[in-house]
């Protein structure tokens, strides 16, 4: 009987130590170390450059940074003084329209909608390279657009903002040039159903 208890105790100790990997990782009889918690990157825009910029992107950014999601959404839909151009139509890059729409969706907690809008860029506009850079010259980086890109990308892709730089493009994608020189159809309607 004593032999069985000794064997059983040795077997139990072996099983417990095996769960720890090597003996140095936990004490005999202790539990294996817990896995480190998975990083969770949430949406949030940094406070910062509040330049008196007349661009719609800057105004929408300010509302999103204040968590005024409804106001930001309304700005995206608002028409100009003549009643002609919706807020999104004042953007000079269709990807920025999609980016800020995704930011509005994230602000409202609509991650699935945000991801749907985000994914339109890869399918229709050649990806995110060049986002935030002036479309005409690619020489000026717009802080609000770049920070929105990093924040939205971080939340949707679960990556650090440091891993999402605003890279300058060597040339403007033809779809962006066509959008800027044409009728500017709403890019949010291209494969992003349910945009409000």
Automatic annotation (TrEMBL):
Keyword Signal carried by entry: yes
Keyword Signal annotated: yes
Segments of this protein annotated with the region Disordered: 25-52
PROSITE patterns: PROKAR_LIPOPROTEIN (PS51257)
Keywords, alphabetical: Signal
Signal peptide: 1-18
The protein's name in its UniProt record: Lipoprotein
